[in-house]
Design brief:
By secondary structure, this protein is an alpha+beta fold. It contains 3 helices and 4 strands; from the N terminus they run βαββααβ.
Length: about 110
Amino acid sequence: MLTVIAEIHIHEGATHVETVLNAFKDVTPKVLQEAGCFGYELYIDQDSNASFQYKPENSIIMFEKWQSLAHLEQHLNTAHMQDFQQKVKDAVKETKIRIMHLGLNNN
């Protein structure tokens, strides 16, 4: 099982943020129906005054769970993800993707 963490940096402006959030709202139900997908969740920063909080401006995080790298690659090549990329291309400045697995075995 793989965990994917995508840190998505959005261009400044409420319109860009709204574009990205709406695109995720549309694509998420389709992604959750894909073979090998065990989770696809969008997170935004909690406003707080915590001195220890890292909160980059205009960014969101996607947490994804995939059965395998092959399933993740298939996901990225689906028609709905290609459509998603077209919808957000002018709003997204940069995306950083981490592909991870459990670091400790809890047997």
